[in-house]
User: Fold this.
Amino acid sequence: VSARAAIAIARRRLSSRALYDIARTAFIGAALGIIFHSTDLLAMATLVSIAGATASRFLRTEFRNPIVFAAPLYGRELARAEAIVPLLRTLIFALTLAIGSALRGNAPPMQTLIIVCLSGAVAALTALSGALRDGWNEYLYTLLAISTGIVTALSSRIAGNGTLLAPIAIASFIAYIALRAFAETLARYDPV
Amino acid sequence: MLQLERSATAPPQAQPVLRAAGACFARDGEVLAGPFSATLAPGASEVFTARDLREARIVARMAAGIVKPTTGSVSIGDYNPRVQPVQAKRLVAFAFGDDTGVTRANFDRAVILRAALWGADSTTARAHAHRMRAALGEESDALALAVALHQALPLVILELPRAALLEAVRHLLPDAAIFSTQVVETRPEPPA
Assistant:
């Protein structure tokens, strides 16, 4: 039931407006890749983290229709389902950024791309809880999301170039905490 | 000002499906809805008359376990929605009063989404919803209600329904407990 519900929610979130938004994100990613054609890990991770931190903004309008809150789903199930589209959007941005760089003859190494994707995913998951908050809290979540993405990329530098272990460990830990926090936020949320 | 009308009486031995005792919803110290109390057995129907639209929405959502009361209690079947929200929501067919975006064109898609969220079989849910649609009509709110009634559930909650729609549901589902909200009518001031 949980997987079926998650797919149904993700399909609902992939409206024509969301698809247009994803296409625009892909275009911006490719354009930035072509303009900067940088393979620097921190530069790419920062850009992708910013994209990840803003990937769930559309949920603010989606939550005005509170059908998902009426559904018999646990907060964790809802959190996983709602995370699918922001993650997809962030990963598309990361890939198009790399493709843009590659078009200028400066393709990032696979290891860099993996770490950049991890940074973006972490930022996207951390930002999810901000979708249900207003004002300063929302901005703080955006800043926190960008920071977690950059920290994930930095962990690779700190642990020494060539290792994926540190960013994978850091990303897994932060992603777990972020999803738990989002699940708790959804469970406590009162759609009035 | 607030009142509950009981339009049908259930057999005394029937176990109540909805029980609410002094349920209030407050935000930032301001009471936005309630207190409301109700005991609703299968086959019974109650209408809560609220002061304004917001209160009508909040009370309907509290009765459905979507919004958690700040004070007082609500239980659906044997479940407390605060502690067992999934089990409680499984018993409720909830029809939102605001625009749910259900049209003739996307009716089947809306039913499939509901069936996925409620863990119902899609084919059976579609057949059931189409039967309800035939009985309720083709207006936007009737279509949204037909989607909500995609399977037989013991508690039906209607947020600000039209009187004709409420009457139709009472005839259509004689065994269900039906709780609905309405706004107290305010008469225009006579000209001076």
The two ends of chain B are 26 Å apart (CA to CA). Chain B touches chain A at residues 25, 27, 32, 54, 57-58, 61, 64, 66-68, 85-90, 92, 94, 96, 100-101, 112-114, 116-119 (CB under 8 Å). The longest helix of chain B spans residues 122-136.
